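Please go through this chain and its backbone structure tokens and walk me through the local backbone shapes. Keep your notes short.
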Amino acid sequence: MYWELIDKLPEGWVIDKTVGSPKCGYVFCTNGKSVLNGQKRKLLKVFKPIEIEVKKQSIVTNFVIVKDANHLKEKDNLPFPAKTVNILARKKFEQHLFKEIMFDLMVCELEGWDKLEYLKELKLLINSISTKNIKQLPTTQSSLF
């Protein structure tokens, strides 16, 4: 259906909370009548108010709350933001990798394959990575397997 998109609720119309919207950022509104008595529907654009309150006294820096920003100097040993972002990305990747391994173990169990053999292969792969050979890692995945 092609409902009319409006930005302002017409007078006498009400928001219909009984049905979900087919378009993001819009809600259905009706003329207040029942379906049997000639109900009309339109899609009303909704705006979510954004309130941002920033106080000069309290600055959040890498999960450390600093009450007075004037005493911060270069000698303060706060972690560089890129490192914090990288740590978060690594943790998310570890979670993803763990889920993949658990899925593979479940497949091994369903198929009757040896789970320990699979885990030993993973350990060998991880242990084969050496910090000395980081620059010499192959560029294609096919040479890893």
Summary: Residues 51 and 58 are 17 Å apart (CA to CA). The first helix runs from residue 81 to 111. The mean pLDDT is 76. Strands lie at 5-6, 14-15, 26-30, 41-45, 59-61, 64-66.
